[in-house]
Every structure is written in C-alpha cells, then in structure tokens.
From TrEMBL:
Subcellular location: Mitochondrion
Family recorded in the similarity comment: Belongs to the FAD-dependent oxidoreductase family.
Source taxon at top rank: Eukaryota
Protein name: Apoptosis-inducing factor 3
Record domain Rieske: where: 66-161
InterPro entries according to UniProt: FAD-oxidoreductase/Apoptosis, FAD/NAD-bd_sf, FAD/NAD-binding_dom, FAD/NAD-linked_Rdtase_dimer_sf, Reductase_C, Rieske_2Fe-2S, Rieske_2Fe-2S_sf
Length: 582
C-alpha cells in the first residue's frame, strides 16, 4: 500500500557480527576435488575456486533508505507491509521495539503480514514456517532459507528502513555456512558424517551442520538419480521437471562441500565397524550416521499387477509419465490418500475421465473425519471425479501388455489407460533388519527426542521414524509430513554436534486440490469428536479435532490464518479446551 507518513521510520540491512566474521573467512580458499561414486567407480570432479561473496551491504549504491511511517502508526503486536520503492519489507512492532524483515515467506512466497505474530516470531499463514523477527532466522519449517533483516531507525518520531535493494528483491537469505577443510586429504571410503537419504531431513541435516561451523566431510547418498527436490510437488504439480523443483542448485552442493552420491543404495549397516555397505559392494566408514530413507509406496497385490502403465509416484519421471499418458485418456486411481486425491485433482483437466477406488466410505475419514471428508468428496464430484467406495481392485486386465481395464471386487469393470496406486507406504528400513538398530513391529526406526537411535552416533529422521511427540505427552508417533522431516534433520544435526536439543515442534501439513488448500496442525490420531465452525458446503470452515476435553488438531479451508494461530498456541505449550472452540 502507499501511505503518507506523518513521521518516518528507517530500516537498514545489517549482518550480525557473528555472521559477518563467518562470511569473511573461508577455511577452504583452495579448490578441492569432490568425489562422486557412480556404479562402483569413483570419479573426481575438481571444483573451481569459490571466493566468498563480499558483504552485499558494503556496496553503497545497493543500499537505500526510506521513511515508512510515524512511530504511533503501529501498536504493539502489529505488522505492516511497507513499500520502500524498489521492494517491500515487513515492519513489526513488538514490546515497544520496531523490527523489519522480508515480507514474503521464502518457502512459497506467502505474505507474512497475513501470518501470526507471537513472542518474537512470525508464522507463515500457509504452511506454518516460523521466522525470528529480530534476526530473520528460520525457526520452524518448511523451507530452507531465512528472511533478510533490515535496520530500523527512529528519528524525530519517524520510522526509517535502511535496506539492500538486492535483499528487498530476493526476499530470502541463506544462512552463512562453513566449508570443508582440505577435502583432498580424505580417504575415498570414509566420511565423518554419512547421510542415507536425500529428502528434506537429509538435506536440512547437512545444511545445519555447515551452518553450525562443522568443517569435516559430509556425504549424502540416495537411490534417486536427482539432487534433493520438493517431493510434495510430485502429486500437486505433476508435470514439474526435476530441475524446476530442486531444493538447491548443483553449485550449492559444490560451494559448501556437501557430496551427494546418486543412484546408490545402502544394502546393510555394520554398526560394530561403523560401515555402510552399498548394493554394489562399495563400503564407506562413518563417524556419525543419519538414516533418512523415508517410505516405499505399497504396490497392488492383485492379479495382473505387472501390467504396463500402472504407477506408484516415487520420482519426477513417474509423475511426468503419468501426465503424458493420461492426457485425453481414462485414469483410475486406487486409494483416496493425500497422494491419490491430489493426483486425481491434478489430472481432471487433462484426462478424459478420472475414477477413484477406495476401501473406506469417505475419503480422509480417519484423518479429517466424516463431515470434512464428505465436503471434499462433493468438491471432487463437482469436478467430474467418479468415486467407487467401499471396494478394491481384484484384477488389472491388459491388451497387448498394456492396461485396458480395472476390475473391482464389486464386479464393476472400469476402462483404464493409466492406473496410479496411492494405497499407503511402508518405511524403507528393510536393509537395517540385522543391524542391531531398534526397529518396531511396523518397521519404523525408534528414536528419542534428540533423534538418536539405540546405537550411539546413529540418528534417524523423517518418514521412517517414530519419535516422542511433546504435544501428545511424548507418545511415540510417526508423522510422515514434509515440515516434520525438515525439523527432524535439524535436531539430528544439532545433536551430532552435542547440543542436547530436543524436538518440540507442532506438526503442520497442507494439501492442495482444485486451487484450494486444506491446512492442518497438531496430531489428531484417535480424535473422538470434531467441532466445526463456518460452512462446509461453501468450503469455508475450520474443524477442531478433540480427544476427551482437549483440542489435539485443527484443519481449515479458506479460513487463514486460523491453523497457524492454533499452531502457535500449541507450540507455547498451552491447552485448548473443547468448550473454548464450541
């Protein structure tokens, strides 16, 4: 907005002293070889030198100052988006002090002015990421980058913001990181930190180690052929190519000496000799280990399951191929899971027909409850999705090797050119069976609040673990969500460095269908009632999930920022009673 101030406020971008000294010194001035192992053969790639970027605020031409308001224009606890001419900032007043940071969440660009301000941090209204208003640092996820921080000056009752034009335009800041000291001295087959899995948990672990000044070798390995990417987009934005959804560019891994071994599968872990054994026979010794292998999608077990054009969506190539094959054709989706429903929503505009087969009577019943599930189902039906509920697939029929029909146990036969299977997943932990690492009856790795397993020096994170959830009296739970994987990775890294940090984050997730989002915070497992405010038919509602007298989770549609508000209350350790929301 444009607004004529009676008094002005100045903001200046400053790097904290600690960050500045980190930025100006490089323990790794020399180029060092990065070693990628592919199919059992080591290849050396020599890196060009990466001079550390000089402080962007040393360039006087880049810095601008603007008066943005009168000191009395903002009350305590208020936020305002202010325009500095070449970009915007978020101005915040809390406890009598002014702060200025980037105005957009670096994750997907949500306007933070519509978020929730609470005790020195602002929470994103869309996906729940939290940022410290004094430093701009990211404190809860999703996303990897922090906010730029700008300097605020008060002169003659006016508030001024002094800012770097570059920071105003990019609206994100990557925290300073250490580099590896003399990689060239390393033995190819040993590393200080080995990370198995290159999803959000693995990447955040590696980045956190570097942010904390760790300058020894870090190796990540993945069965995937790609560097870490934004996995939720596989079902929400199915024709995205790997480079469009990568979480960090290739240069980032080179600059900070994070080695990534792609298409490398670990077959066993020998905890006695601290060694990971790869499928191709290669062995790598480690000092600290993070297991973040995620889940493996369940396949169908019916007759004809090996027919062509039946997909689990595991990689960008799977999603891209489904979109290509589904265009103007008949699609059958098995399972009204988050993945199944998002794929159905994405394909409706492209496919000739979309049918969804599900064992339950209503989609999302166990997660969102029957009433919300029915409202979502109605939205899908009005978008031409046909549901076949309370049945399952008995056979996949082919013609010339390719899928032609899906036969249901109810006797119904559906025409199908493509089938997407979304019937859940199992933890990818089979390779740990004989390892001595504690795994529960469902295959989840059991960790404590510091993401430590029962084996010293071995940590686990992400979808493959159960951990004590503070929010539910430290009940051991599995929370297979993107935000939680980020936080697990961060906590694991801090405890590899002996920080003694315990996890206490509130789970937060979202699903997107037909341009609408459902946001969700808390852990509603075992809820016994749902209190709904708003209008389900209009898809503008908030649902509070209660267990006995306590609110354990909340979901909303078109009701921002209520879910972020509830997440902040729960994060503060406060209890919300059922009577408070009725």
């Amino acid at each position: 907005f444009l607004f004529v101030p009676a008094v002005e406020v100045k903001i200046e971008v400053v790097i904290p002293e600690k960050e500045r000294s980190k930025e100006e010194m490089s323990p790794n001035g020399k180029a060092s070889p990065l070693i990628y192992k592919v199919n059992g053969t080591a290849r050396h790639y020599h890196l060009e030198e990466h001079p550390i970027a000089s402080n962007p605020y040393h360039n006087p031409k880049d810095v601008m100052e603007a008066s943005v308001c009168h000191v009395k224009d903002l009350e305590n606890g208020q936020m305002r988006e202010v325009d500095l001419g070449c970009g915007k900032a978020l101005l915040i007043k809390e406890s009598g002090e002014f702060h200025a940071v980037g105005h957009k969440c670096p994750h997907y660009g949500a306007p933070l002015v519509k978020g929730v301000l609470s005790k020195g941090r602002v929470r994103c209204p869309w996906h729940g990421a939290c940022f410290n208003i004094g430093t701009g640092d990211i404190e809860d996820f999703p996303g990897l980058d922090s906010l730029p921080r700008f300097q605020v000056k008060i002169e003659k009752e006016k508030v001024y913001i002094r800012a770097s034009k570059q920071a105003l335009q990019t609206q994100r800041r990557t925290k300073m990181m250490a580099k590896c000291i003399s990689l060239s001295n390393y033995n190819l087959s040993s590393t200080n930190v080995l990370i198995i899995g290159a999803g959000a948990a693995g990447l955040v672990c590696a980045e956190t180690l570097r942010q904390e000044g760790f300058s020894d070798r870090i190796v990540m390995c993945t069965m995937d052929r790609h560097l870490p990417y934004d996995r939720p987009k596989l079902s929400k934005s199915m024709d995205s190519h790997p480079e469009q959804i990568s979480l960090r560019p290739k240069e980032f891994f080179r600059t900070y000496d994070i080695e990534v071994l792609t298409e490398m599968q670990v077959a066993a872990v020998d905890i006695k000799n601290k060694t990971a054994v790869f499928k191709d026979g290669f062995k790598m010794e480690y000092n600290k280990l993070l297991i973040a292998t995620g889940n493996t999608p369940k396949a169908l077990s019916c007759k004809g399951k090996e027919v062509e054009n039946v997909f689990n969506i595991r990689m960008p190539e799977d999603a891209n191929r489904v979109v290509k094959l589904a265009t103007s054709k008949n699609v059958v989706i098995v399972g009204a899971s988050f993945l199944g429903m998002e794929v159905a929503a994405y394909l409706t505009e492209r496919a000739h027909s979309v049918s969804l087969v599900e064992l339950e009577e209503v989609p999302f019943k166990k997660f969102f409850g029957e009433r919300v599930g029915r409202a979502v189902m109605k939205m899908f039906e009005s978008n031409r999705v046909k549901f076949y509920m309370q049945t399952e697939v008995s056979e996949l029929r082919e013609q010339e090797g390719k899928l032609k029909e899906v036969v249901l146990k109810s006797g119904k036969v559906l025409r199908a050119d493509v089938c997407v299977v979304g019937v859940g997943a199992v933890p990818a932990t089979g390779f740990l069976k004989q390892s001595g690492i504690n795994i529960d009856s469902k295959g989840f790795i059991v960790v404590n609040k510091m993401m430590q397993t029962n084996v010293p020096g071995v940590f686990a994170a992400g979808d493959a673990v159960t951990f004590p959830l503070a929010l539910r009296n430290n009940k051991k739970v599995n929370v297979p969500h993107w935000q939680m994987a980020h936080m697990h990775g961060r906590i694991a890294a801090l405890n590899m460095l002996a920080h003694g940090m315990e996890i206490s984050t509130v789970p937060y997730l979202w699903t997107a269908m037909f341009g609408k989002s459902i946001r969700y915070a808390g852990h509603g497992e075992g809820f016994d009632d749902v209190v709904i405010q708003g209008d389900l038919d209009e898809l503008k509602f908030v649902a509070f999930y209660t267990k006995s007298d306590e609110v354990v989770a909340v979901a909303s549609m078109n009701y921002d920022p209520i879910v972020s508000k509830v997440a902040e209350v729960l994060a503060a350790g406060r209890t919300i009673r059922k009577r408070d929301v009725e």
